[in-house]
Amino acid sequence: xxxxxxxxxxxxxxxxxxxxxxxxxxxxxxxxxxxxxxxxxxxxxxxxxxxxxxxxxxxxxxxxxxxxxxxxxxxxxxxxx
Length: 81
Ligand SMILES: [Zn+2]
Hints:
Blueprint: H1 3-14, H2 21-27, H3 31-42, H4 48-57, H5 67-74
Bound molecules: zinc ion.
């Protein structure tokens, strides 16, 4: 990892709500996990709270209220910018 990416990741930690935690979690997943998560996000019959709960149980850093998952699904997170 380059110095700049280290600095950017430290900056991101100081602004927890400005960085989409779904994207951050996804960046550490395997390709299979990413595909499963994208399929789950696209399936509107699966509640965001369930996806959030499973991600937390697997050790990903998400808030308990599933706000990042909901924002990511709506396209309201910083991924869309
Ligand atoms: Zn996002």
